[in-house]
Amino acid sequence: MSGQTVKIASRCECGSLAVRQVNQFVLDDELWWDSEFFCETCGTYLCEHAGPGSAPDDVRQALFAAHGSVRLRLTGPAPSLVPLLKVFREISAASLPQARDLAGELSRDGLVGTLSEMEFLKARLHRRGVRVDISR
Asked: What is the pLDDT of residues 67-105, one digit of tens each?
């Protein structure tokens, strides 16, 4: 399992400063994210979310701010467009035109995302015979 974590200052309902911890990781061949909230003053603890799927923008932005983004690039020519389209449609329920756009972006400058997102995508593409690598 690989992943990234960020602790964010957040305001509790009691008025005190609390901590919200967000995580994104690959587990059992799925991209997961979770978010927990804890206030030391009043003892409030909440698991806001834990499960597979794409993280919401606020979680992604916090990860980008703390860890930066990474780029997934082809390391050679793709065997064909079909494996790329299949992967993009499987992981994101992208329409065929959206999958083509993602494949085109990967073929040109690469795709940018969080480390966990790109590791997840890299593993899926490797299984389809598409060689990619991650860089900062």
From this structure: 999 999 999 887 789 999 999 999 988 899 999 999 999
Q: Are 66 and 108 in contact (CB under 8 A)?
A: no
Provide the number of structural domains found in the chain. 2
> Is the full-model pTM beyond 0.85?
yes
What letter represents residue 95's amino acid? S
Q: Quick one: 20 and 52 in the same domain?
A: yes
Distance CA 76, CA 97 (A): 23
DSSP letter (8 states) at residue 128: T
My answer on whether 96 and 128 are in the same domain is yes
76 and 49 in one domain?
no
Contacts for 51 with CB less than 8 Å, ≥ 6 apart: 32, 33, 34
Contact 72, 134 (CB under 8 A): yes
Instruction: Looking at the structure, tell me whether residues 90 and 125 fall in a common domain.
Output: yes
